[in-house]
Amino acid sequence: MENDSTAPFLLGGSSCGVLLLHGFTSTPQSVRYVGHRLHARSGATVMAPLLAGHGTTPEDFAQTGFRDWLKSAEDALEALSARCTTICVAGLSLGGTIALNLSIRRGDLVDRVATINGSTGLYSPQQMKAFFDGCTGDFQPGIGSDIKNPGYKETCYDRIPNAVTQERYVLVTATGQMLPLLDKPLLILQSRTDHVVSPENGKRIEGAVASRSITFCWLENSYHVATLDNDRDLIVQELTNFLTAE
Q1: Which of 37, 39, 53, 140 is 20 to 30 Å from 17 by CA-CA measure?
Q2: Residue in 93, 198, 211, 222 annotated catalytic
Q3: How far apart are CA 234 and CA 203, in angstroms?
Q4: CA–CA separation, 28 and 4 (whole Å)
Q5: By the 8 A CB rule, do 211 and 184 touch?
Q6: Which pTM value belongs to this model?
Q7: Residues 3-16, mean pLDDT to the nearest whole number
Q8: What is the mean pLDDT of the chain?
Protein backbone atom coordinates (compact mmCIF):
# COMPACT_ATOMS: atom_id res chain seq x y z
CA MET A 1 0.00 0.00 0.00
CA GLU A 2 1.21 3.50 -0.85
CA ASN A 3 0.67 4.71 2.71
CA ASP A 4 2.66 1.95 4.41
CA SER A 5 6.23 2.70 3.35
CA THR A 6 8.55 4.65 5.64
CA ALA A 7 10.87 5.57 2.76
CA PRO A 8 11.26 9.12 1.43
CA PHE A 9 9.46 9.78 -1.83
CA LEU A 10 9.47 12.10 -4.83
CA LEU A 11 6.43 12.40 -7.10
CA GLY A 12 7.36 14.28 -10.26
CA GLY A 13 4.86 16.77 -11.60
CA SER A 14 4.47 20.42 -12.48
CA SER A 15 6.77 23.37 -11.79
CA CYS A 16 4.88 23.88 -8.51
CA GLY A 17 6.73 21.94 -5.82
CA VAL A 18 5.58 20.86 -2.36
CA LEU A 19 8.12 19.90 0.29
CA LEU A 20 6.20 17.70 2.74
CA LEU A 21 7.86 17.08 6.11
CA HIS A 22 7.05 14.39 8.67
CA GLY A 23 7.10 14.86 12.41
CA PHE A 24 9.29 14.11 15.43
CA THR A 25 10.20 10.38 15.78
CA SER A 26 8.13 9.60 12.66
CA THR A 27 8.80 8.89 8.96
CA PRO A 28 7.36 9.84 5.54
CA GLN A 29 4.75 7.11 6.16
CA SER A 30 2.77 9.66 8.16
CA VAL A 31 2.47 12.05 5.20
CA ARG A 32 2.48 9.55 2.33
CA TYR A 33 -1.30 9.40 1.91
CA VAL A 34 -1.61 13.18 1.79
CA GLY A 35 1.40 13.48 -0.52
CA HIS A 36 0.07 10.99 -3.07
CA ARG A 37 -3.45 12.42 -3.03
CA LEU A 38 -2.15 15.98 -3.31
CA HIS A 39 0.00 14.98 -6.29
CA ALA A 40 -2.96 13.29 -7.97
CA ARG A 41 -5.32 16.24 -7.44
CA SER A 42 -2.99 19.17 -8.08
CA GLY A 43 -0.34 17.74 -10.39
CA ALA A 44 2.34 19.32 -8.20
CA THR A 45 5.75 17.81 -7.67
CA VAL A 46 5.77 16.43 -4.12
CA MET A 47 8.93 15.58 -2.16
CA ALA A 48 8.97 14.03 1.32
CA PRO A 49 12.46 13.49 2.78
CA LEU A 50 13.45 11.38 5.79
CA LEU A 51 14.81 13.64 8.52
CA ALA A 52 18.17 12.74 10.05
CA GLY A 53 18.03 10.11 12.80
CA HIS A 54 14.54 8.96 11.87
CA GLY A 55 13.44 5.64 10.42
CA THR A 56 16.20 3.54 12.01
CA THR A 57 16.56 3.14 15.80
CA PRO A 58 16.13 5.37 18.86
CA GLU A 59 19.85 4.94 19.48
CA ASP A 60 20.62 6.44 16.07
CA PHE A 61 18.15 9.20 16.77
CA ALA A 62 20.02 10.05 19.98
CA GLN A 63 23.08 11.02 17.94
CA THR A 64 21.23 13.81 16.12
CA GLY A 65 19.88 17.23 16.96
CA PHE A 66 17.91 20.13 15.52
CA ARG A 67 20.78 21.21 13.26
CA ASP A 68 20.72 17.78 11.60
CA TRP A 69 16.93 17.81 11.15
CA LEU A 70 17.02 21.30 9.67
CA LYS A 71 19.81 20.31 7.31
CA SER A 72 17.81 17.32 6.05
CA ALA A 73 14.88 19.59 5.27
CA GLU A 74 17.02 22.36 3.82
CA ASP A 75 18.90 19.98 1.53
CA ALA A 76 15.56 18.69 0.25
CA LEU A 77 14.31 22.25 -0.23
CA GLU A 78 17.32 23.10 -2.36
CA ALA A 79 16.90 19.93 -4.42
CA LEU A 80 13.22 20.66 -4.99
CA SER A 81 13.92 24.29 -5.92
CA ALA A 82 16.23 23.02 -8.68
CA ARG A 83 13.21 21.24 -10.21
CA CYS A 84 10.42 23.73 -9.56
CA THR A 85 9.84 27.46 -9.95
CA THR A 86 7.45 27.87 -7.00
CA ILE A 87 7.72 26.08 -3.66
CA CYS A 88 5.29 25.41 -0.83
CA VAL A 89 6.82 23.96 2.33
CA ALA A 90 4.33 21.99 4.42
CA GLY A 91 4.75 19.77 7.43
CA LEU A 92 3.11 17.82 10.23
CA SER A 93 3.99 18.47 13.88
CA LEU A 94 7.76 19.13 14.06
CA GLY A 95 7.67 19.09 10.27
CA GLY A 96 5.27 22.03 10.48
CA THR A 97 7.66 23.80 12.83
CA ILE A 98 10.51 23.21 10.37
CA ALA A 99 8.31 24.48 7.53
CA LEU A 100 7.81 27.73 9.45
CA ASN A 101 11.53 27.90 10.22
CA LEU A 102 12.56 27.43 6.58
CA SER A 103 10.03 29.96 5.33
CA ILE A 104 11.75 32.54 7.53
CA ARG A 105 15.40 31.55 7.16
CA ARG A 106 15.24 30.45 3.51
CA GLY A 107 12.54 32.77 2.27
CA ASP A 108 14.47 33.11 -0.98
CA LEU A 109 13.36 29.59 -1.87
CA VAL A 110 9.89 29.46 -0.28
CA ASP A 111 6.74 31.00 -1.76
CA ARG A 112 4.08 29.50 0.54
CA VAL A 113 4.05 27.65 3.85
CA ALA A 114 1.55 25.29 5.46
CA THR A 115 1.63 23.86 8.95
CA ILE A 116 -0.39 20.92 10.29
CA ASN A 117 -0.41 20.82 14.09
CA GLY A 118 2.95 22.54 14.18
CA SER A 119 4.52 23.38 17.53
CA THR A 120 5.84 26.83 18.45
CA GLY A 121 6.77 26.10 22.05
CA LEU A 122 3.36 26.19 23.76
CA TYR A 123 2.97 23.08 25.90
CA SER A 124 0.48 22.17 28.58
CA PRO A 125 1.63 22.14 32.22
CA GLN A 126 1.20 18.35 32.26
CA GLN A 127 3.49 17.95 29.23
CA MET A 128 6.22 20.05 30.82
CA LYS A 129 5.98 18.15 34.09
CA ALA A 130 6.28 14.86 32.16
CA PHE A 131 9.38 16.21 30.46
CA PHE A 132 11.14 16.79 33.78
CA ASP A 133 9.82 13.58 35.32
CA GLY A 134 11.29 11.62 32.42
CA CYS A 135 14.75 13.18 32.57
CA THR A 136 16.13 10.62 35.03
CA GLY A 137 16.90 7.98 32.37
CA ASP A 138 18.16 7.96 28.80
CA PHE A 139 14.76 7.53 27.17
CA GLN A 140 11.16 8.60 27.55
CA PRO A 141 8.08 6.76 26.25
CA GLY A 142 7.11 7.47 22.64
CA ILE A 143 4.41 9.97 21.73
CA GLY A 144 3.42 8.70 18.28
CA SER A 145 0.17 7.47 16.75
CA ASP A 146 -2.15 10.00 18.41
CA ILE A 147 -4.91 9.13 15.91
CA LYS A 148 -8.67 9.18 16.49
CA ASN A 149 -9.43 6.64 13.75
CA PRO A 150 -8.60 3.16 15.16
CA GLY A 151 -7.93 1.83 11.65
CA TYR A 152 -4.70 3.79 11.20
CA LYS A 153 -1.33 3.64 12.91
CA GLU A 154 1.76 5.81 12.64
CA THR A 155 5.15 4.18 12.15
CA CYS A 156 7.41 5.84 14.73
CA TYR A 157 9.80 5.22 17.61
CA ASP A 158 8.36 3.78 20.81
CA ARG A 159 11.14 5.44 22.86
CA ILE A 160 12.49 8.99 22.67
CA PRO A 161 16.05 9.82 23.76
CA ASN A 162 16.06 12.58 26.36
CA ALA A 163 18.85 14.32 24.49
CA VAL A 164 16.73 14.85 21.37
CA THR A 165 13.73 15.94 23.44
CA GLN A 166 15.84 18.86 24.62
CA GLU A 167 16.88 19.59 21.03
CA ARG A 168 13.23 19.66 20.01
CA TYR A 169 12.40 22.23 22.68
CA VAL A 170 15.17 24.50 21.43
CA LEU A 171 13.94 24.26 17.84
CA VAL A 172 10.24 24.82 18.51
CA THR A 173 10.76 27.61 21.03
CA ALA A 174 13.25 29.50 18.85
CA THR A 175 11.01 29.12 15.81
CA GLY A 176 8.07 30.47 17.78
CA GLN A 177 10.11 33.56 18.64
CA MET A 178 10.91 34.12 14.95
CA LEU A 179 7.27 34.09 13.78
CA PRO A 180 7.00 37.90 13.36
CA LEU A 181 9.55 37.55 10.53
CA LEU A 182 7.26 35.26 8.52
CA ASP A 183 5.59 37.15 5.65
CA LYS A 184 4.66 34.36 3.20
CA PRO A 185 1.10 33.23 2.40
CA LEU A 186 0.25 30.81 5.19
CA LEU A 187 -2.13 27.88 5.69
CA ILE A 188 -2.68 26.71 9.27
CA LEU A 189 -4.40 23.35 9.78
CA GLN A 190 -5.02 22.64 13.46
CA SER A 191 -6.71 19.71 15.18
CA ARG A 192 -9.25 20.88 17.72
CA THR A 193 -8.22 17.94 19.95
CA ASP A 194 -4.51 17.15 20.06
CA HIS A 195 -2.80 15.14 22.81
CA VAL A 196 0.76 15.93 21.64
CA VAL A 197 0.82 19.60 20.61
CA SER A 198 -1.48 22.12 22.26
CA PRO A 199 -4.11 23.46 19.81
CA GLU A 200 -3.22 26.92 21.13
CA ASN A 201 -0.17 26.79 18.85
CA GLY A 202 -2.34 27.27 15.76
CA LYS A 203 -3.81 30.54 16.98
CA ARG A 204 -0.42 31.64 18.26
CA ILE A 205 0.99 31.23 14.73
CA GLU A 206 -1.94 33.13 13.22
CA GLY A 207 -1.54 36.03 15.62
CA ALA A 208 2.25 36.34 15.53
CA VAL A 209 3.18 36.23 11.84
CA ALA A 210 3.44 39.18 9.46
CA SER A 211 1.76 37.30 6.60
CA ARG A 212 -0.96 39.27 4.80
CA SER A 213 -2.63 36.12 3.50
CA ILE A 214 -3.57 33.59 6.20
CA THR A 215 -5.99 30.68 5.94
CA PHE A 216 -6.92 28.95 9.21
CA CYS A 217 -8.79 25.65 9.25
CA TRP A 218 -9.81 23.68 12.33
CA LEU A 219 -9.65 19.89 11.95
CA GLU A 220 -12.65 18.77 13.96
CA ASN A 221 -12.40 14.99 13.61
CA SER A 222 -8.71 14.18 14.03
CA TYR A 223 -6.07 14.06 16.73
CA HIS A 224 -2.40 14.98 16.32
CA VAL A 225 -1.43 12.79 13.34
CA ALA A 226 -4.17 14.33 11.23
CA THR A 227 -2.55 13.30 7.94
CA LEU A 228 -3.45 9.67 8.80
CA ASP A 229 -6.73 10.46 10.52
CA ASN A 230 -10.34 11.23 9.65
CA ASP A 231 -9.55 14.68 8.20
CA ARG A 232 -6.80 13.51 5.85
CA ASP A 233 -8.88 14.19 2.72
CA LEU A 234 -9.83 17.64 4.03
CA ILE A 235 -6.11 18.35 4.42
CA VAL A 236 -5.55 17.34 0.78
CA GLN A 237 -8.39 19.63 -0.31
CA GLU A 238 -7.11 22.60 1.71
CA LEU A 239 -3.55 22.14 0.44
CA THR A 240 -4.75 21.86 -3.15
CA ASN A 241 -6.75 25.08 -2.81
CA PHE A 242 -3.81 26.80 -1.12
CA LEU A 243 -1.43 26.01 -3.97
CA THR A 244 -3.60 27.90 -6.45
CA ALA A 245 -4.91 30.70 -4.21
CA GLU A 246 -4.15 34.29 -5.19
Answers
A1: 53
A2: 93
A3: 19
A4: 9
A5: yes
A6: 0.93
A7: 90
A8: 93
